[in-house]
Design goal:
Helix content is about 25%, strand content about 25%. By secondary structure, the protein is of the alpha+beta class.
Amino acid sequence: MDLTQLDLVTPDAKVTSIEKIDERTSLAKVVIEHIYPAFVGFEIEPQLVFFNVKSTLAQIGLNGIGEEYMLDKKARRAEVTVRLRAIGPIAREMLALITPGAYIGKLFAADPRRRVRDADYLTRMFGRSDRKGRPLLSLGGMQGSDNMILDKVDGRTIAYLALRNGRISYEGTIFGFLPTMAKALHHDAYSLRNMLHLHQDWIEGAPRNVEEDEILLVRTSPLHIRTVFARVVDDLLSCGYTHTTASVLQPDTAASGDVYELYGTSKREITDIPLEFYTLEPYREHVFYSDRDQLQACLEDSKSLFTAFATAPTDERASVFVVKGSQMEQLKSEDWVVRPPVFHELPGITHGTRQALLIARFIEQQPSYPFLKAIEDGEITSQGVLLTRYFPSPIMKRMLLSDRVSSCLKGIYFQYPSANHGQFFSYEDRAIMNDLYKFAIPVYWVDEITGKILQYVQKPFRETGMFVPLNQTETFIKATTFGVYGSNLLSGGFDELLTDILKGVLEMQKTTNHPLLKADTPLVLITGGGPGAMETGNRIAKELKILSGARISDFRSTSESVVNEQRQNPYIEAKMTYRHYELVERQAEFNLDFPIFVTGGIGTDFEYCLEEVRRKVGCVKPTPILLVGDVNYWKDKITSRFQANLSHGTIKGSEWVSSCFFCVQTAQEALEVYRKYFSGELVIGKDSPMQPLGFVNDQ
């Protein structure tokens, strides 16, 4: 993949032999090597490929017309027979100086599929510039020009460029410059344009008509092109005029595409130059994401995204940068960059130079690297989205958040969190998600389990988030969060009670005006995402049309584990996942406003203690926590620990935390706790009394 080459043109053509026909004509054999493999000319009809003579040769009157073409895609090579025709005395002298080894032009593929048909494609570029402040498209000024008229002819957009009043002529010194020019042609990277201008004079007011055996050099206002190829349309020129084959203006034209070379016979002055336009490869078009309606429509369609990912090489670390809807719809396996990184054990900071080298190598092995590097280098100029099989390695953070990449990258879409850990993110993954969120680079999970596109969203004022269905991101941001903690082994016994509690809360919000519960406050219910009590909670939430979420830990069986493998339950809509060693981080990110505990084991005890500590240290405001079930069960689980802490003085000053926990056996009891809290009747917090059982029990 070479993002430095353009796919409508070849490198320069080198003369291998030249045969003189007469003083005005020679036949040159030219060869072009190392052609970009994606050169469009290999694919389209041969008659649409044209030889384009160097503009410096055309300006002295030497035209070059391709007559025979032989293109070899496999060898990345082309051979062309070019008829060189000298127009005027300067060109005749120059023709005699052309020798094998000279670079005299290149091929242009006039692919009709790439013709600009809609004028809006061009006009949206007026007034816009690239990152260096250069106009994307203008004639004489940043905002466009009154000297450019856009029209539609035969289904294509034509720009008519008004000519300035006058013409260019040559000083006599040009003849002495020709040998130098001939020698310079043997160096394909050597620019002759500025030196040629030294021998030219602008004659203001001179007539712009042409006679036989004369080259007419005319000018427009300075033209800037960054977004398209432009090509002079011969059949729309005034009658009697023909343009040389130096008729293609490349997208690096900057205030220099203002000289046009015409020949023929006409006493009528020419007034304008007609140009047609050809689009660049999509990623070079300097197109803003906001202008890509088709791409945005594709990205909003989950079917389109799943279809796009299906084109990626199976089980490979692969990425592709997409800037256009049609590009996404036509993705092929070969469009994806595949790179299997090999990560070496890092030697540590004491071996700084070696460690930095290994990290640099690892970064370059990432499949997203060629695209991000091309953005940094200015080779990719259109805004777009990155599709990547696996969530990008956190080691790519510096590139992803660089100024140029962050301004060009309008979304990251991935299919799996990790190649090595499957569905589970690391702490570093979540850290970079938060950074991307701050930099306004949205991250999307094309999730096979839910069959939906999930977007990473943070709750306000919290450094944590979840992946949420696209149509429920605002729900998650504004929602009050309930949660269910309990055993992954027990699922029954509280279904009806939990259903009635949540139904009651939904009814209560219609008449309540509390910051955490009012008519326009949506609800979300979070569990650990596994079976048992968690599955019950998620199922009930989904049935009640409450956003059903989960924070899922990797409890897959290992040789060291003594836990039951916890499959993800099928009722989860929003989620975040964690590696197995991140239990504390996972629990800290639950951020529940209203936890509900049911029967559970060691994991539930751990969650209970953390909710207790969060209130003690002020991580969250004191809100009521429900303990659902028989009071004796909760006494056995909680009271002895609370009393031991109390008697040893280890909870002095925080005994009040016990007033945050409420044991309930019915939905009515639970809803009464909530009613009192939302109405301000419930005494809860540092001023609330100690509860001897470690929780409130009104039974």
